[in-house]
Amino acid sequence: MQFSFTPWQYDDEVVAIARKYVTLHETVVYEEMERASLDYASGSAAMGPVRPVWWISSDDSRAFSVDDEFLIGDRYLVAPIVSNATRHRDVYLPGPMSRDGGKQLVWEDKLRGGEKVLGGTLLKNYKVELDEVSWWELVQASNQD
């Protein structure tokens, strides 16, 4: 994890927000980053730990146009705010099928308390405050019945 500007150059609120996300990185994200990095280094994965959203569902043509979200491994999707003075964004959850076409993808909203959403869904005007990051966990990749 890297900061472009050190949080302590600002106020206590910024430092608290930075600590919150450093802790999230250390306790949740790091394990998937490490796993995905090792898979890539060993040759068992064809893509490094930070991946485009189309990676998880290569037949999803809509995912190919998403350039402001990314995957961490095959487990987490991050949809950051990238426009100045914005408190909402559209979030696209890739799917509905996995890249091998055999599994249905379901994403869990980790920012808003666990709502599960089928992959292939576009969420319009998803609210994200300045101290938040929209992130989703792939919680189901089950075989179609």
What would you note in describing this structure?
By secondary structure, this protein is of the alpha+beta class. The chain has one domain: Sandwich (Immunoglobulin-like), CATH 2.60.40. Helices cover 21% and strands 29% of the residues. The protein has one helix at residues 12-42, and strands spanning 50-51, 70-72, 76-79, 88-93, 103-109, 116-118, 121-127, 134-143. A six-stranded antiparallel beta sheet has the order 1-2-3-8-5-6. It has a two-stranded antiparallel ribbon with strand order 4-7. The longest helix is centred in the first third of the chain and has 31 residues, at 12-42. It starts with 11 loop residues before the first helix and ends with a strand.
Offer a concise description of the structure.
This protein has one helix at 12-42, and strands at residues 50-51, 70-72, 76-79, 88-93, 103-109, 116-118, 121-127, 134-143. It is of the alpha+beta class.
Task: Give structural attributes.
145 residues, alpha+beta, Immunoglobulin-like, six-stranded antiparallel sheet, two-stranded antiparallel sheet, 21% helix, 29% strand
Ordered list of secondary-structure elements with their pairings:
Elements: H1 12-42, E1 50-51, E2 70-72, E3 76-79, E4 88-93, E5 103-109, E6 116-118, E7 121-127, E8 134-143
Antiparallel strand pairs: 1-2, 2-3, 3-8, 4-7, 5-6, 5-8
